[in-house]
Amino acid sequence: MNDADYPIETVSTPDPSDGPERVVEIQLAGLADNDDPIHNAGIKTAYNFASPANRRATGPLSRFVAMVEGRTYAPMIDHIEATTGSLERTDRRATQPVTLTGPRGRTMTYEFGLSKQQRGRFEGCWLTDRVLATRPVE
C-alpha cells in the first residue's frame, strides 16, 4: 500500500495519550462537521485513525472517501446527533457502539472496533480496525 497520503497533516492525527473512547470522539466530531476546516476533513480524520490493516482494505484515501460517502456510512457525514454506548475494552482491543442520526433523519447504529498498535509509526495509539453498521434504527 502506498502511504504517500498518510497521515493527512491538516487534520487530527493519532496520539498515544488518547484512549479508545477519545479516538471515537475525535472521529465523530470531525464527521459531524465534515468540511471544517477543509473539504472532507472529517473523512480524512477517520482515515488518519484507521489502522494499517483497515487502510490496506479500504484505502487509498480516494477509495476510503467513496466508501464513507456510500449508503452504509453516509449517515456519519454531518450527522446531527451521536449517542455512544458502553465501551468494552481489554489491554489491546476495544469496541464501542454508536448510534448516529444523519442530516436527513436516517439513524444507524455502528460498532467501532479498535486496537492499540504494537509497532510502527503510531505504536501505542488506538486505531480503528473496523466500523460495522449493525442496524438501522427506525
| Gyration radius over CA | 14 Å
In the CATH hierarchy, what is the class? Answer: Alpha Beta
Q: What proportion of the residues is helical, as a percent range?
A: 25-40%
The string of secondary-structure elements, in order, is HHHHEEEEE
Q: How would a textbook summarize the main sheet?
A: 5 strands, antiparallel
Beta-strand percent range:
25-35%
Overall pLDDT level: 93
| CATH architectural label | Roll
- What's the domain count? 1
> Runs with pLDDT <50, length 5+?
none
The name CATH uses for the topology is Nuclear Transport Factor 2, Chain: A
Total number of strands? 5
- Would you tell me the structural class of the helices and strands? alpha+beta
Shape label? globular
Number of helices: 4
Termini gap: 39 Å
Describe the protein's architecture and organization.
The chain has one domain (20-137): Nuclear Transport Factor 2, Chain: A, CATH 3.10.450. Helix content is 27%, strand content 27%. It contains four helices and five strands; from the N terminus they run H-H-H-H-E-E-E-E-E. A hairpin with a 3-residue loop joins strand 2 (88-89) and strand 3 (93-101). It is globular.
